[in-house]
Specification:
The complex is a heterodimer of chains A (about 120) and B (about 110). In chain A, about 0% of the residues lie in helices and about 50% in strands. Chain A has strands at about 5, 10-15, 20-25, 30-40, 45-50, 55-60, 65-75, 75-80, 90-95, 105-110, 110-115. In chain A, strands 2, 4, 5, 6, 9, 10 and 11 form a 7-stranded mixed β-sheet that branches. Chain B has about 110 residues and is mainly beta. In chain B, strand 8 and strand 9 (about 100) form a beta hairpin. Classes of the chains: A mainly beta (about 120), B mainly beta (about 110). The interface of A and B includes residues 42, 95, 102 and 105 of A.
Chain lengths: ~120, ~110
Amino acid sequence: GAVVSQHPSRVICKSGTSVKIECRSLDFQATTMFWYRQFPKQSLMLMATSNEGSKATYEQGVEKDKFLINHASLTLSTLTVTSAHPEDSSFYICSAPASGGVYNEQFFGPGTRLTVL
Amino acid sequence: GESVGLHLPTLSVQEGDNSIINCAYSNSASDYFIWYKQESGKGPQFIIDIRSNMDKRQGQRVTVLLNKTVKHLSLQIAATQPGDSAVYFCAENNKGAQKLVFGQGTRLTINP
């Protein structure tokens, strides 16, 4: 199956700093990627849809100015958590759908553990 | 349907027994359903999927059943093994929107 990578796998930062997380599709192109957030013992919550060449689409309640998304190429999307605070500590996961067909299987990255001190 | 900050329910089974994990979905327009397995600290891993024009699909040791009448989905794991310990999520997709909505998840633990 297709492979999606994320970098870094874990990051610890001080409150008030910004953190960038990368999501890459390694062996396929993805015009669309998705960013999820997962708190401990909870399900994945979709934050936003990253669109190559256009603005990201954010889910209700997600601050677009705090969670900056850039889909720089057909294989790379980045999520920047700006002015991070302890409540932003979470597991961030990206996914990318395989191309072709209505029912596109999505491939998930391994996740990035963010801890804000 | 949408998972709103609920804690994960847990299913405990004996090694070698069959496991049945259930999921209720809320959107009658959803036409594609997927089961994912998530191990601790990792991203979700695809297990099996099913389209709305089917009511049963089988894979290796796994079977997914879909009941559209009551909007219910189940995952059956045959001869459960220690490596099956994980959290299992159902997800639904609406008419090729590519936007997955995850259920709350179930933690499966295996007793030796």
